[in-house]
UniProtKB/TrEMBL annotation, chain A:
Protein name: Uncharacterized protein
Keyword Signal: yes
Keyword Signal: yes
Signal sequence region: 1-16
UniProt lineage: Bacteria, Pseudomonadati, Bacteroidota, Cytophagia, Cytophagales
Domain of life: Bacteria
Keywords tagged on the record: Signal
TrEMBL record, chain B:
Pfam families: Cytochrome_P460, Haem_bd
Coiled-coil intervals, chain numbering: none
Residues annotated as transmembrane: 12-29
Keywords per UniProt: Membrane, Transmembrane, Transmembrane helix
UniProt signal peptide: none
Taxonomic source organism: Dyadobacter jiangsuensis
Protein name as it appears in the record: Cytochrome P460
Residues of the Haem-binding domain: 21-150
């Protein structure tokens, strides 16, 4: 009988320990305040260990929803605002097999305004992913092209 | 005086022992027996995987229950018989092929996650059947197994041309009364997930009540009125840079918090609408039982899997 009690006590201790490692608290600081922008699309990348959501205003969403094969900054319309939010990607502590976003890594913003000789595309980034100044111009152009190339996800 | 007290005490013990013994005999005689129906379509997997499952799961989740003598002693025999009956209902390795292939894969992930969480095999079962415990090394074998199946299955990604939105003539409604709605598109994204286990990509939205509950750390329990919406797409294969983008729309899932109305499922109402025609899932309201069974794994976060979290103390 004593043995049985000991077994039960150790079993419940083991169970309690197990629960502790899954003890989680909300991390609302990772929620991005979109200020009314729409979700355009999302993607994740196991190589970089990141997950991203692309947001945009009405014009940006309309742009990303259009059928097209190639899309260049040249055919952007003034008024478009894109924000690409990138988080760390981590294993969901509650489900082996699912990966979920962790902390925000960077927020990239692309805005299109009207210039004298056509649309002016502006790029800025905040967060830990800022590129070194030397490569900034080239990589900014790449990032703008990348963001423009995203097609809107189909929602019901 | 003392002798009289002693005598009375002895009588009481004798009567109590008599009552207990009679109860035991009645319980034992009427004790339920666990039958082993024929094995019709057994689970087949790699030998090392099958060996673990046979040792740790088959006593309850198969038609090859190997009960020990002490499993047949009342009152424990009642609990054992009830557990086996429930276990076989959830899934049965002896009738494995009677469920669709996709469901089999989902069940295997569920099994691995239940073991990972320490919920299976049942701790009260391993306390009396220590050999049924799954060791960390064995869990790794199982994890690698399910990962390899899904990798094979979803390597190509969703290659079909992406379908655009058709017109849905009426508002689809789940059998439990939860109606599809579009307001979630103006809600905040609370998390996003990539699921190598089932080849999907997801965005999860929360209404104001849900977001405020997360901000105030008031999710145990979540407040009534909190609603969480999950949009699911099939993942495409990774592009040259490794980006996995959403392909075709798969389904949308809604969790509605109403502690009273959905008391049977821990206060959450579940709904799922599949395909661009938003076909409601579930023929009877009991479909939600399988939802909450799995969501029990997320008990620590109020039964919601996909919220932003960090470990306590970090």
């Amino acid at each position: 009988m004593k043995n049985l009690i000991a077994v039960f006590i150790s079993a419940s201790l083991a169970l309690a320990a197990c629960h502790d490692s899954r003890k989680l608290t909300p991390a609302p600081e990772t929620i991005f305040d979109d200020h009314g922008l729409h979700v355009i699309t999302s993607f994740h990348n196991d190589r970089t260990g990141t997950i991203s959501v692309l947001y945009g205003n009405d014009e940006a969403l309309a742009h990303a929803s259009r059928e097209r094969d190639t899309h260049t900054p040249g055919d952007a319309s003034p008024g478009e605002v894109f924000k690409l939010v990138t988080w760390d990607l981590k294993q969901n502590p509650l489900w082996f097999g699912s990966n979920i976003n962790g902390a925000v890594k960077s927020v990239e913003t692309v805005t299109v305004s009207a210039g004298e000789s056509g649309p002016v595309v502006d790029y800025s980034t905040e967060g830990s992913d800022s590129k070194s100044a030397k490569n900034a111009v080239l990589s900014n152009a790449e990032r703008i092209s990348f963001i423009f190339a995203q097609r809107a996800s189909v929602f019901p | 005086m003392n002798a009289l007290k002693h005598h009375k005490y002895r009588n009481a013990v004798a009567v109590l022992a008599g009552i207990l013994f009679t109860s035991f005999v009645v319980l034992q005689v009427n004790s339920p027996t666990v039958e082993n129906p024929p094995v019709t379509s057994e689970f087949h997997g790699p030998e090392e995987v099958t060996r673990i499952l046979k040792r740790s799961c088959y006593d309850c989740h198969s038609n090859e229950s190997n009960l020990r003598w002490y499993d047949k002693v009342a009152p424990f025999s009642y609990k054992v018989a009830a557990d086996v009956e429930e276990a076989r209902k959830r899934f049965n390795f002896s009738e494995w092929d009677s469920i669709p292939k996709a469901d089999q894969e989902g069940k295997l992930w569920y099994i691995v996650n239940m073991i990972d969480a320490g919920r299976m095999p049942l701790p009260e079962y391993t306390a009396t059947h220590p050999s049924a415990k799954v060791t960390p090394e064995e869990l790794t074998i199982l994890k690698n197994y399910v990962t390899s199946i899904s990798k094979k299955h979803y390597a190509a990604g969703d290659t079909a041309a992406i379908m655009e939105k058709p017109k849905v003539a009426h508002v689809p409604t789940s059998i439990n009364g939860i109606r599809y709605f579009e307001d979630y598109k103006t809600w905040k994204v609370i998390s996003s997930t990539g699921r190598p286990d089932n080849g999907t990509s997801r965005i999860i939205y929360g209404n104001d009540i849900a977001v405020k509950a997360l901000e105030a750390n008031k999710i145990l329990p979540w407040p009534d009125g909190a609603v969480i919406v999950k949009v699911v797409w099939n993942s495409q294969a990774p592009d040259a840079d490794g980006n996995v983008k959403p392909g075709n729309f798969n389904n949308i899932q809604i969790m509605v918090r109403d502690a009273k109305k959905f008391a049977d499922t821990e206060g959450w109402g579940f709904a799922r609408f599949s395909g661009l025609d938003l076909k409601p899932y579930g023929k009877t309201a009991s479909f939600a039982t399988s939802c909450i069974n799995c969501h029990q794994l997320a008990k620590g976060t109020g039964f919601v899997f996909d919220i932003p979290t960090r470990p306590v103390g970090e």
